[in-house]
Structures are given as structure tokens and as C-alpha cells.
Design a protein that fits this description.
Helices cover about 40% and strands about 20% of the residues. Helix 17 links the parallel strand 16 and strand 17. Helix 11 packs across helix 12, helix 13 crosses helix 14 and helix 16 packs parallel to helix 17. The strands form 5 sheets. A 7-stranded parallel beta sheet has the order 11-14-15-10-9-16-17, with helices on both faces. Strands 1-6-5-4-7-8 form a 6-stranded parallel beta sheet, with helices on both faces. It has a 3-stranded antiparallel beta sheet with strand order 2-3-20, with no helix packed on it. The N terminus is likely disordered. It contains 17 helices and 20 strands. The protein is an alpha/beta fold. The structure holds nicotinamide-adenine-dinucleotide (NAD). Nicotinamide-adenine-dinucleotide (NAD) binds next to helix 9 and helix 10.
């Protein structure tokens, strides 16, 4: 051990001892408990440069003030570029993400240890479909009194909180949208996905800087902590927050004293009735629920199927790569996958199982599964914790419903009013309409996998990694991050 390393470790231990004083949570990282926090910090102290990112250049900083200052400077330069150049920056980001998809997909999987490599790679490749400057169409009014234009102006520098489930994809999607509309970004990534985020931020800035002279149009802090998140929330140079994450951070953002666009949690239910094509339903549930080991916020989390076709649907699930657990195996898995919390006495998701491969869950269930298994499934009651919690694991519980109204009622309850995503498989347009109206979710998919709601292969429309739910902006686009400005010319400029 060299002397610097010893000093780092001693300083870290002293700091941690300090943190354990009553009421002290100094340095606690957002979204993590103190145990995980401690070990990762020690790791960071041992390997201060283990990602090879030079702090202080190309957008990677140790504090929010520096990050905001640098992003502000670059954002001013961005405004002086033409729309063609802005478009070229956005396209450059998309092409870097695509080109680096394999390398960064692996980097993110290695760091976060959740999800699947094939889908980590795909999530970076599909970013090319995220909307850019083409969304900023001026709205014009002309008439005998002159003309008026409604145009889309940037906010400035936007504070972004990103989740561990899609660290590089979310920051990249945010960057594409926000830079297209003329903004800069400061990103407080999830601590468990912060290194890969910094690698991406640096690479984007390096290439943007070489071609367009902006050194830090998107910035991030290393290491991100609850304090840096709070500093971002409070910073006077940040007029808008965009928060993508679970319930705790959604609440924190909604309580902030500035405007926040919140892409919050979900618990998407699937309703299947007797008119559904059961092969399509099973194929779709597997495709959506198994995607990245069920890390997607829109992914199928629980199924409510009418009794008359319940067994047939389960049989179809096996044809599409599902493996059925029996009641005893589900019980063993549940004991491992949820832990009682001392604070509220309720069962909470055990993070050791979030986003893990089906084989890891199967081991906890006490069963061996074929290697090609995409997802586990099995019958539970509606009040089961796997139904009620947003579990983000490749096990989908199936609940038997007396009829479709019963299925819809249970599905609405399980969605918990998040208004995030709901899915139905039915050929009855009245049933589809009824569930769609009652669910009132931001994304509603009929007769396809949840991912159809994000466009691409399975569905129409564009995609986004920040689906603003409680604040109502929906799938975010460049327009979401703009201020509408009216320019009126009275009595002139109408040429016809
Ligand atoms: P998380 O809530 O643990 O963390 C999300 C981010 O918030 C992280 O950067 C974390 O560090 C930060 N954070 C957590 N608590 C905070 C606090 N009190 N103050 C400030 N920052 C805080 O979520 P996760 O595990 O990273 O991601 C999964 C969750 O995100 C799921 O609930 C999922 O549904 C949701 N999600 C939603 C969308 C969407 O578009 N609506 C997209 C992806 C993920």
C-alpha cells in the first residue's frame, strides 16, 4: 500500500465514523442504504481514478457548483450555434451511443450488476429514435392584424437525476432532448451507475468539443450523493429539475422549491380476457417482462387473467420461454426476494434480486431451469407482495380473475394510482376502452408488449427514458424542456 492510499482509507474510515453519529447522514448516497454506501465509498477511496475519467475536464466534476458553471458556459455557446449545428450535435450524441453500445452496455452491466447485456446494448442502439430538433416546430398565426409566432426557447441548465436501471440510456436520452431544445445539463446519476455515466459524459463532451467547441454541455458529479442531489435541487443556476426514479426521489423533487418534471415509479398490470389471442399475450408478457430482467418501469409486473382461459395462458407462457414455479417455489423465492423493513414492518424488495437473471431467482426458489429461460411465472393471490410491490425481477405473478371486470378492478388497485403504464390483451373494443379510461395511465398498450408503448420495433411513435407521470408531461421530448415564447408583429409582416 502506498502512503496516499493509506491516507485515503484512514480519512474514509474517519469520515464514516463521523457519519454514524446520531442524525448524521453526511455522504449518504441517494437511493442506497448506508451499508452499500459505505462499501462503495471505500472502493472509491481505494481506486480514486478507477474509471480513468479526469475530474474537472469534459464535464466531470466533484461538486455541483463547478458542474453548473461549466454547463452554463457551454449552454451560452450552444445558443450562438445555428440550428443545423445543434442538430449535428444531437446526431453526434446518437451516433456515439450507437457506436459505443457494446462497450458501454458491458461497462454499465459490470458496474450496476443488474439487467441483461443484450438489452443494455439495445437500449443504447435505439436512442437514435429519440426526438431531436425536428420537434421544435414554430406555431404561426397570420391574419389582417399581422403575425404572431409561438416559439420554443430553452430554460438554460437543467438538473437531471437518473436511475440505476438505465444510467447511460437515461442521461443520453435527456441530453438528446434537452440539447435539441438549446439547454445544458447537470446530471446527478445513481451512485451505483455513476462511473459509466461519467465515462459517457466525458466521451460526448470530448467529441462535441472537438467539432463544436463546447467542452461541457452536459456535466455530472463524481461521486453523486444525497448532498449533491440536494445542492442541485437548490442551485440558483438551475431553473428546472428532471427527475427519473422511484417514489422517494419523486417525493423529494415534488417538494423542491422549483419546477420539477418527475418521471416516477410504476407497477404495470396486464389484463387478459377470454377474447384475447393467448399466444400474442404470452409472447408479449415474456418480451416486456423479461426485458433487461424486468428493469423497465413500463415492463409487465403482474397479470390478471380471467378464469376461463387462465390455464391456457399459463401453457402458452411456457412456449415463449417462461418457466412456471409451483406454490412452494414461489414461497421460497418470496422469502428471499423481499425483506421486512425494521422501520415500517412491511416487506420491501431485496435489492440483491432486482434485475438478476432468472437462474438466480430459480436458485432461491429451489429449482433448476433450462438455460434459455427468459422469465419465471406462477400463480399468486392478488394481495401477494410480488403483485403489490414494483419488484423489477424476472418473475411475473399471475392472478386468477372471476371475469374481466374483476381483472380490471384488481389491476387498477395494483397500479396504485401511479398513472404510469397498463396493458391489456383483448379483442373486445369495449373492454379495451373501459380499462383504458379507468386506468388513465400515461402509457396504455393493447395487444402487444409494454415496449410497444415506446415505439420502435413493436409499436409506433417515439421513445423516451423519462416518462413524466405525476407531473403529467408524459413521454418527454425536446418540447418538454422549453419555455413557450410569443412574438407578435402588429399590423405588418403578412405578405399575402
Ligand atoms: P431510485 O429512486 O433508487 O433512484 C433514482 C435516482 O434518485 C438515483 O439517482 C438516486 O440516487 C436518486 N435519489 C433517490 N432518493 C433520493 C432523494 N431522497 N433525494 C435525491 N435523490 C434521490 O430508483 P432506481 O432504482 O435508480 O430506478 C428505478 C425506479 O425508477 C423505479 O421505481 C422505476 O419505476 C423508476 N423509473 C421511472 C422511469 C420513468 O420514466 N417514469 C424511468 C426509469 C425508472
Amino acid at each position: 500500500m502506498n502512503q496516499t492510499l493509506v491516507q485515503d482509507v484512514v480519512a474514509e474510515v474517519m469520515r464514516r465514523l463521523g457519519d454514524r453519529q446520531p442524525g448524521g447522514n453526511g455522504g449518504l448516497r441517494a437511493g442506497e442504504d448506508s451499508a452499500a454506501n459505505d462499501s462503495k465509498r471505500i472502493e472509491a477511496a481505494k481506486h480514486p481514478h478507477h474509471i480513468g475519467v479526469s475530474i474537472g475536464e469534459f464535464g466531470v466534476f466533484t461538486n455541483i457548483d463547478q458542474a453548473v458553471t461549466a454547463a452554463t458556459e457551454s449552454q451560452k455557446k450552444l445558443l450562438r450555434l445555428s440550428m443545423t449545428e445543434r442538430d449535428a450535435i444531437v446526431k453526434l450524441i446518437k451516433s456515439i451511443a450507437k457506436q459505443k453500445a457494446h462497450e458501454w452496455g458491458k461497462l454499465e452491466l459490470d458496474e450496476t450488476e443488474i439487467g441483461r447485456l443484450d438489452h443494455k446494448i439495445e437500449k443504447l442502439q435505439i436512442l437514435e429514435g429519440v426526438p431531436g430538433v425536428e420537434f421544435l416546430r414554430t406555431h404561426a398565426f397570420t391574419g389582417s392584424k399581422g403575425i404572431a409566432l409561438d416559439e420554443y426557447a430553452p430554460f438554460g441548465v437543467i438538473g437531471c437525476i437518473t436511475p440505476v436501471t438505465h444510467s447511460i440510456p437515461t442521461l443520453t436520452c435527456n441530453a438528446i432532448n434537452m440539447i435539441a431544445s438549446g439547454n445544458g445539463l447537470v446530471i446527478n446519476a445513481h451512485p451505483s451507475g455513476a462511473n459509466c455515466a461519467a465515462v459517457a459524459v466525458r466521451e460526448y463532451n470530448k467529441q462535441i468539443s472537438a467539432k463544436f467547441g463546447l467542452e461541457a454541455i452536459l456535466t455530472c458529479v463524481l461521486p453523486p450523493t444525497l448532498e449533491t442531489a440536494e445542492a442541485l435541487f437548490q442551485h440558483r443556476g438551475v431553473p428546472l429539475l428532471v427527475v427519473t426514479g422511484g417514489a422517494a426521489v419523486a417525493r423529494a423533487a415534488l417538494a423542491a422549491r422549483k419546477r420539477a418534471i418527475v418521471a416516477g415509479p410504476g407497477n404495470p398490470p396486464v389484463v387478459v380476457d377470454e377474447t384475447a389471442c393467448l399466444a400474442t399475450a404470452a409472447d408479449s408478457i415474456v418480451k416486456g417482462g423479461a426485458y433487461d430482467n424486468n428493469l423497465l418501469c413500463i415492463g409487465e409486473k403482474e397479470v390478471f387473467c380471467v378464469e376461463s382461459v387462465f390455464e391456457k395462458l399459463l401453457a402458452q407462457m411456457e412456449k415463449y420461454g417462461g418457466f412456471q414455479l409451483n406454490a412452494q417455489q414461489i414461497e421460497s423465492l418470496t422469502k428471499a426476494a423481499f425483506k421486512p423493513d425494521a422501520k415500517d414492518g412491511k416487506l420491501h424488495v431485496n435489492k440483491d434480486f432486482v434485475g438478476k437473471d432468472p437462474s438466480v431467482l430459480a436458485q432461491a426458489a429451489g429449482v433448476r431451469i433450462p438455460p434459455q429461460t427468459q422469465i419465471l411465472f406462477g400463480e399468486t393471490t392478488a394481495d401477494h407482495v410480488f403483485v403489490q410491490e414494483e419488484q423489477m425481477m424476472p418473475f411475473v405473478p399471475f392472478v386468477r380473475a372471476k371475469n374481466v371486470d374483476d381483472a380490471i378492478e384488481m389491476a387498477l388497485q395494483a397500479e396504485h394510482g401511479y398513472r404510469h403504464t397498463a396493458i391489456i390483451h383483448s379483442r373486445n373494443i369495449d373492454t379495451i376502452t373501459k380499462f383504458g379510461r379507468l386506468a388513465a395511465t400515461t402509457i396504455f398498450v393493447a395487444n402487444g408488449p409494454s415496449v410497444a408503448g415506446l415505439g420502435g420495433g413493436a409499436g409506433e411513435g417515439y421513445g423516451s427514458f423519462s416518462i413524466a407521470t405525476p407531473t403529467g408531461e408524459g413521454l418527454t421530448t425536446p418540447l418538454t424542456f422549453t419555455r413557450s415564447r410569443r412574438v407578435a408583429i402588429a399590423g405588418a409582416m403578412r405578405m399575402i
